[in-house]
Amino acid sequence: MTEHPENTENASSESRINVDALVVGAGFSGLYMLHLLRDRLNLKVGLIEAAPSVGGTWYWNCYPGARCDIPSYHYSYSFSEELQQEWSWSEKYAAQPEILEYLNYVAKKFDLAKNITFNCRVLSAHFIEGPNRWHIKTDDGKQYEAKYFIPAVGTLSDANVPEIPGQQAFEGECYVTGRWPQEGVNFTNKRVAVIGTGATAVQVIPLIAKEADHLTVFQRTPAWAAPLQNKPLTEKDNEEIKENYSALRNQAWNSFGGVPFPNARASALAESQAQRAEHYESCWQEGGFSLWLGSYQDILFDEKANETAAEFVRAKIRERVEDPSIAEKLCPPEDVYYGAKRQPCETGYYEAFNRSNVTLVDVKQTPIQEITPTGLRTTRETYNFDVLIYATGFDAFTGALFRMDIRGRDGQRLKDQWAAGPRTLYGLATHGFPNMFTITGPQSPSVLFNMPLGIEMHCDWIADCIDYMEKNDVGSIEPDKAKEDEWIAHVKEVADTTLLPKASSWYSGANIPGKPQIFMVYLGGGPRYQEIIENSARNGYKGFLLE
Ligand code: FAD
Ligand code: NAP
Question: Region 312-329: what's the mean pLDDT?
Answer without folding.
Answer: 98
